[in-house]
From TrEMBL:
This is SH3 domain-binding glutamic acid-rich-like protein. GO terms for cellular component: cytosol; nucleus; ruffle membrane. SUPFAM superfamilies: Thioredoxin-like. It is found in: Cell projection, Ruffle membrane; Cytoplasm, Cytosol; Nucleus. Its main location: membrane. Could act as a modulator of glutaredoxin biological activity. May play a role in cytoskeleton organization. Belongs to the SH3BGR family. The keyword Nucleus applies. CDD domains: GRX_SH3BGR.
Length: 93
């Protein structure tokens, strides 16, 4: 597994999750950072993979991973954007 991946779901009743997912992808797209969107609603194994990488059996999307290194969740992503440390957060620097 290589490259930046954003774990998301296309099936959720949570407006918060939908909003967080779209903000993450909007920011990455705006900064022209390439990533793969992984839809965990398509396969339970993907959800389990996301949770294992996050180290949290209850982790919810969006979760961000670079290769096999866990970067963080939405809150940590936003914090990195605000502190101008996104490259480091995404393990790209």
């Amino acid at each position: 597994m290589s490259g930046l991946r954003v774990y998301s779901t296309s099936v959720t009743g949570s407006r918060e999750i939908k909003s967080q997912q779209s903000e993450v992808t909007r920011i990455l797209d705006g900064k022209r950072i390439q990533y793969e969107l992984v839809d965990i609603s398509q396969d339970n194994a993907l959800r389990d993979e996301m949770r294992a990488l996050a180290g949290n059996p209850k982790a919810t999307p969006p979760q961000i991973v670079n290769g096999d290194q866990y970067c963080g969740d939405y809150e940590l992503f936003v914090e990195a954007v605000e502190q101008n440390t996104l490259q480091e957060f995404l393990k790209l620097a």
